[in-house]
Amino acid sequence: MKRLPWFLPWFGAARGAAAPASEVPEASGARGHTRGRRGPLAVLSALLLLVAGALALTVSGGSTALAAPAPPSGWTTVFSDDFNGAAGTGLNRSNWLYDLGTGYNYPGAAGNWGTGEIESATDSTTNVYQDGAGHLVIKPVKDASGHWTSGRVETQRTDFAAPAGGQLEISASLQQPNPAHGLGYWPAFWAMGADARPVGATNWPSIGELDIMEDVNALSQHSTTFHCGAWAGECHDPDGISSGLQACAGCQTGFHTYSVIVDRTTTSAEQLRFYLDGSLTYTVNENQVSTATWQAAVDHGFFAIFDVAIGGSYPNKVCGCTSPSADISSGAGMSVDWFAVYRSTGGGAGTTTGGTTAGGRRPAAPRPAAPRADRRPDRPPAAPAAPRRRTSPRASPGPTRATR
After folding, report:
1. What stretch of H or E contains 32?
2. With a cut of 70, which residues of the chain have pLDDT below it?
3. What is the distance between the alpha carbons of residues 152 and 101, in angstroms, rounded to a whole number?
4. Do residues 115 and 313 make contact, with C-beta atoms less than 8 angstroms apart?
5. In Å, what is the CA distance from 161 to each residue of 19, 148, 256?
6. Contact 274/212 with Cβ under 8 angstroms?
7. CA nearest 98: which of 69, 128, 126?
8. Pairing, β 152-155 against β 96-98
9. 398, 397, 388: which is closest to 116 by C-alpha?
10. Residue 346 in 3-state DSSP?
């Protein structure tokens, strides 16, 4: 599902141009017969064995684990993680921070991460672990008493920023949870403004939030959203400026690449572009909000977050019910193959090349997108209609924390 397995180019070449008989090693005592007939058969058999072995590696889990793509010309890799730890181990805590409990431990920070989700985040390898095959897994689990635990991890670094005149890309290849009964599942890959961390996101949504991938209720869809400004302000929070849920075929059964590019190539006309497997899915332009609001939400560092929530405002809004359902399945994890942050400092075209599950990085030329105000509330007040993610504002009138 990502890059072609290493053997395919070679296999294609071998199949299209077999070596001359004179170059096929002669078996002892067999001579011409072996060279003329059994040689090609042996080569073909070996190739078939290689193919079978590769298929055995790829049929379960959607694809083999791959390294984060190298940056294209003009870009540099700021940070990446291929999650190559031993099976059952946690993350490198020098790179990753585990959120614990049901909210940031800061005065005024919202409970239940500001979204009404019901799980408690842990640093247990029951909920967050590397699988030994090159993946990070975040798995929500329901215990015998009905209590849910799950995982929510953030990058330690908060300086992922697009320089003036340049661009920033945040990407990950992941497979959404695939529960038998998924009403209430809420996986997400997103980023929040650096200034949220010191104050428990009580300054949300002004510091900015970029929801790169969210799905709810195991619908095999995804939405992207930009949160900014003030509660119930020009960015329509708590819903935000959102794509709404979009089709995402195969996203629960295979790995797909989700990306955002913060484009500051022209600082008077900046842009956010969201991609799925290299295809542009949604664009937010600076002129959709005031300059001050945009700069406060975009022109600074970010940190990235992965989590799988259970229940909450977004799943509830989409189903028109209270989630999770009684028959919800426990233990369906989100699997992350790689995570990477890239940056360019020059002007130029302003897009990278590649960025899909097949390997490269990706972006295509920007296209204008109409603003949209739907995302998921992150804090107490009643949420407007439309998707939103989980931001976690506090219960008081102003934004509180932007937690998805």
Report:
1. helix 32-33
2. 1-63, 347-404
3. 10
4. yes
5. 52, 35, 24
6. yes
7. 128
8. antiparallel
9. 388
10. coil
Distances (CA, A) of 113 to 44, 85, 395: 57, 29, 11
Which tokens in the block code for residue 375? 């995302």
Task: Give me the pLDDT at residue 346, please.
Answer: 76
Q: What whole-number distance in Å separates Cα of residue 153 and Cα of residue 155? A: 7
C-alpha to C-alpha distances, 115 to 120, 202, 366, nearest whole angstrom? 13, 14, 32
Q: Which residue type occupies 250?
A: G
| Structure confidence by residue, pLDDT tens digits, 203-252 | 999 999 999 999 999 999 999 999 999 999 999 999 999 999 999 999 99
**Which residues are within 8 A (CB) of 51 and not within 5 positions of it... i.e. 6 or more apart?**
7, 11
The model carries a pTM of 0.76
Task: Tell me the DSSP string of 107-172.
Answer: TTPPGGGGTT---EE---TTTEEE-SSS-EEE--EE-TTS-EEE-EEEES---B-PPTTSEEEEEE
N- to C-terminal Cα distance for the chain?
Answer: 28
Query: Per-residue DSSP letters for 48-73?
Result: HHHHHHHHHHHTTTSS---PPPPP-T
With a CB cutoff of 8 Å and minimum separation 6, the contacts of 378 are 110, 113, 114, 115, 204, 205, 227, 237, 238, 313, 388, 389, 390, 391, 392, 393, 400, 401, 402, 403, 404
Candidates 16, 19, 22, 14; CA nearest to 47 is: 14
Residue type, 180: A
Write down how long the chain is: 404
Dihedral of CA 170/243/314/327: which sign?
A: negative
CB 103 within 8 A of CB 117: no
Angle, helices 7-16 vs 39-58, to 10°: value is 150
- Tokens encoding 90: 């946690």
Residue range 252-307, pLDDT digits in tens: 999 999 999 999 999 999 999 999 999 999 999 999 999 999 999 999 999 999 99
Q: What are φ and ψ of residue 58, in 5° steps?
A: -100, -20
Contacts of 158 (CB under 8 A, 6+ apart): 194, 197, 301, 302, 303
**CA 57 to CA 51: how far, in whole Å?**
10
Q: Are 215 and 251 contacting, i.e. CB atoms less than 8 angstroms apart?
A: yes
